[in-house]
Amino acid sequence: MTNLGANFCYISISQKSMSSLEVKGKLLVKFNAQQVTERFKKREFVLEIASGNYTEQVKFQLIQDKCELLDKFKEGDEINVFFNLKGKPYTKDGVTSYFNNLDAWRIETAKDGKASQNDDIPLPPDDFSSFSQVNDNEENLPF
Questions:
Q1: CA spacing 20 to 30 A to 136: which of 32, 51, 111, 125?
Q2: What is the mean pLDDT of residues 109-138?
Q3: pLDDT tens for residues 120-133?
Q4: Which of 23, 113, 105, 97 is nearest to 61 (CA)?
Q5: CATH number of domain containing 49
Q6: Nearest 5°: CA angle at 110, between 74 and 112?
């Protein structure tokens, strides 16, 4: 788990890789799809994420054929959002600004308060006494 924070508020995010993240929250607002250009469509939504004593309201976007992923959910549903963190510079009149997008690519109904299905994988035991000890002199390896 990675904790990203701003103003002393921390949001719990499962990290698959630097650009593939997951977060759990309540679907607060669903916007209609927007045809931005002839070839580009997006749909935005806001997720309310518990962050200690505070909540964060974070806007995500779905693009192209992913816009329909939101259709089966209603405002107020607890969901897991899998997303990529994207950032690009934009320069105008010699001044560079930076823009970030949270591009959702999968949405699931939240389960048991867990942020990820991977949380169900059991950890190895702290006590290894239940494992049998191998005798180094035995040659029972298949190779």
A1: 125
A2: 53
A3: 444 455 554 444 45
A4: 105
A5: 2.40.50.140
A6: 135
